[in-house]
């Protein structure tokens, strides 16, 4: 049997790279706005303009239900996100950015995009585009494996 070495194990390397990049970008919003990574992801998704349910946020952010629930509760309590009942279903809550939430996204986005650009410059535009394609393929394969279709 081939030994497992974390330094070269693809899932581990992806997790390490993701954590390091997330931590880098978190500097743009953590101390200044007292936001967690989960809260920032929700603000960023909602900033795309469409109100969403918590379940839709779970799917879009790939965070679990508990994490989304806690993060949105905090964001609503801080008046960064608005919570409204859906007109067609009084049990369903739709979440959207408040003006204060939008202002934070407007301030953080240029910093996040600048950091992204620096990362892209480290590998070049073509490599970044190839990486994007590779990551999508890995995500799709992982999804199929999770669902048992490729096992």
Elements, N to C (H/E): HHHHHEEHH
CATH architecture: Orthogonal Bundle
The fraction of residues assigned to DSSP E strands is 5-15%
The oligomeric status of these chains comes to single chain
CATH class: Mainly Alpha
Domain count: 1
Could you explain the architecture of this structure?
There is one protein chain. It is globular, with a radius of gyration of 18 Å. The chain is mainly α. The chain is built from seven helices and two strands. 15% of the residues are buried. The protein has a two-stranded antiparallel ribbon. The protein starts with 9 loop residues before the first helix and ends in a 5-residue tail after the last helix. The model has no long low-confidence stretch (mean pLDDT 92). The protein has a single domain (6-146), classed as Winged helix-like DNA-binding domain superfamily/Winged helix DNA-binding domain (Arc Repressor Mutant, subunit A). The chain is 66% helix and 10% strand.
